[in-house]
Amino acid sequence: VAERLEVLRALIHEAAPGVTEKMTYRMPTFVLNGNLMYFAGCARHVGLYPLPQGVTAFTDRLQELGLAFSKGAIQLPHDRPLPLDLVRDIVAYRVAQQQK
Q1: What is the C-alpha to C-alpha distance for residues 68 and 98, in angstroms, rounded to an integer?
Q2: Distance (Å, rounded) from C-alpha 73 to C-alpha 52?
């Protein structure tokens, strides 16, 4: 789980230059002009929390990939490869929102 979290952390830093980190709700939180997204390791998945707008904009892709998601959360199961292109696109989308 730690390795998967490190991969995501590096990807977020790469896709969001200038992002900083803090702990919020006991989770690593990425901050860029406000909270950009959170993530956390769970027993069966990594939870990615790009806020509701970060989920809504990618609903079709999440469904195509068969990923479980809710209003503001996406589950990335440990038994499947991380969808790095999707995560990169979500980060870019959220960065663009935060820069408005």
Answers
A1: 25
A2: 8
Percent of the chain's residues with pLDDT above 90? 97
100 has a pLDDT exceeding 90 = no
DSSP labels for 10-39?
A: HHHHHHSTT-EEEEETTEEEEESSSEEEEE
d(CA 11, CA 22): 17
Measured distance CA(70)–CA(7) in Å, rounded: 23
Whether the predicted pLDDT of 65 surpasses 90: yes
Cβ 40 vs Cβ 28: under 8 Å: yes
Q: Tens of pLDDT along 9-43?
A: 999 999 999 999 999 989 999 999 999 999 999 99
